[in-house]
Amino acid sequence: MYIISGFADVPEADREAFARALPEHTRLTRAEPGCHYFEVKPHPTISGRYVVNEAFDDERAYNAHIKRANYTEWAKITRNLKRSY
Q: Using alpha carbons only, what angle is made at residue 18 by residues 71 and 58, rounded to the nearest 5 degrees?
């Protein structure tokens, strides 16, 4: 099992687009082969911070997820995120 856990800080200028695109990104990720769990939720007290938890079969499945996502609108929307995971 390959686990990703941490947070991402979304710049204020990108927050509306991020929130709009997140449901579709979540749906597509959960449908990927090897994805066991994918959840991105707003932090309860820090504005613009999202808590990220993901589980994939292995690193190869995770890398396939990254490769797919890199060619989507999601990649454009999240290009300015500060990720810590």
A: 50
